[in-house]
């Protein structure tokens, strides 16, 4: 119920083009810090989950430093913990990371970075930086938003990963503390804002049925990959039922979890 | 060793995906079908991962304390709680239920 009555101020997402032109730098920095700090702290949950799944401190920190896209990190750690082989585990994590390519596409037009800088900026192209950057009214604001969010988030995410991994070692049996529920809760929190229309809900439902139905039959890690087929299947079915009700392109492409 | 292979592949793959978007000329990935698939793929994967990590126990299905934890997280989401509260409520409820059972 709260969903309907709450004011629609949670966006700031890419769907809403910036109003007003001369947004002060301080306001942009404030937006960026808010997202960067809130999400950066949740690296703690990753550190704990990863260490609890049996990864070493070095492996856990390497994931946050090198992969730096939360959903993929959680997916990889979960698949390895379930006994999946490294290739299916990495494939699942990679599929989740593909969306960042589409964020980069939108960001590159907005930021207009020099080519030499792009390989360095690339590591920060994730949900949160995109959510902060896209609605900015000017190039200057977009660049400030991207840089401040990226820097804050990268620093905090890695620090809290380290603290979480160390904490997990001190805790011992992480399952006794309920920490095995952190990872599915993270996935659910990322998923919830994406369930905007029937298409997304049907896709999610079909994926759940597929993964639970296939779990007893296929090797660990494979059912999740197969359930990804729910996406093309739903698109094909939807295409057959006529394309008159399609939403606009821009809405359908940038799902960001800025509410998290 | 296997874990390092998985980490290496994921790191390279995810980085290249990020870089690709910044490097390719606009238009290459702008085809409607590609865009819609890219938007819907995370929905399918995240839903599957949520279900698997809540109800999966190796290669068996299990209904245990994690399900109550996830229900708590869902409630927190409906109430528009911040991200950390959502995750925290799942952890706390799971731990409590597990201790009681």
Automatic annotation (TrEMBL), chain A:
Subcellular location: Cell membrane
Region (Disordered): 1-24
Compositional bias (Low complexity): 1-11
Superkingdom: Bacteria
UniProt cross-references to InterPro entries, sorted A to Z: Brnchd-chn_aa_trnsp_permease
Membrane topology: Multi-pass membrane protein
Alphabetical UniProt keywords: Cell membrane, Membrane, Transmembrane, Transmembrane helix, Transport
Transmembrane spans: 32-49, 144-165, 177-195, 207-237
Pfam families: AzlC
Residue spans of biased composition, Gly residues class: 12-21
Similarity comment: family membership: Belongs to the AzlC family.
Name by which UniProt lists this protein: AzlC family ABC transporter permease
């Amino acid at each position: 119920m709260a969903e309907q009555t709450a004011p629609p101020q949670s966006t700031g997402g890419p769907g809403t083009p910036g109003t007003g032109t001369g947004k002060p730098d301080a306001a942009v920095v404030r937006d960026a810090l808010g997202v960067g700090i809130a999400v950066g702290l949740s690296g703690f949950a990753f550190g704990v989950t990863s260490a609890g799944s049996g990864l070493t401190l070095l492996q856990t920190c390497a994931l946050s430093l090198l992969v730096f896209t939360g959903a993929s990190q959680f997916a990889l750690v979960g698949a390895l913990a379930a006994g999946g082989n490294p290739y299916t585990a990495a494939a699942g994590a990679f599929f989740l990371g593909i969306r960042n390519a589409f964020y980069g596409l939108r960001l590159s037009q907005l930021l207009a970075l020099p080519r030499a800088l792009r390989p360095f900026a690339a590591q920060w192209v994730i949900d949160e930086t995109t959510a902060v950057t896209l609605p900015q009214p000017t190039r200057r604001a977009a660049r400030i938003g991207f840089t401040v969010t990226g820097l804050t988030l990268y620093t905090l995410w890695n620090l809290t990963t380290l603290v979480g991994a160390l904490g997990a070692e001190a805790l011992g049996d992480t399952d006794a503390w309920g920490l095995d529920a952190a990872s599915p809760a993270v996935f659910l929190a990322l998923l919830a804002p994406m369930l905007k229309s029937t298409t997304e809900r049907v896709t999610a439902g079909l994926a759940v049925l597929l993964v639970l139905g296939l779990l007893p039959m296929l090797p660990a890690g494979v059912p999740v990959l197969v359930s990804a087929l729910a996406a093309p299947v739903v698109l094909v079915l939807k295409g057959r039922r006529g394309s008159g009700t399609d939403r606009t392109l821009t809405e359908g492409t940038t799902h960001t979890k800025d509410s998290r | 060793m296997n874990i390092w292979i998985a980490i290496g592949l994921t790191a390279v793959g995810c980085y290249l995906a990020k870089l690709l978007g910044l490097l390719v000329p606009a238009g290459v990935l702008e085809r409607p079908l590609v865009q819609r698939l890219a938007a819907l793929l995370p929905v399918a994967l995240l839903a599957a991962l949520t279900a698997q990590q809540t109800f999966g126990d190796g290669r068996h299905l299990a209904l245990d304390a994690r399900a109550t934890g996830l229900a708590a997280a869902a409630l927190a989401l409906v109430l528009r709680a911040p991200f950390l509260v959502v995750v925290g409520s799942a952890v706390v409820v799971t731990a409590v239920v597990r201790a009681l059972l």
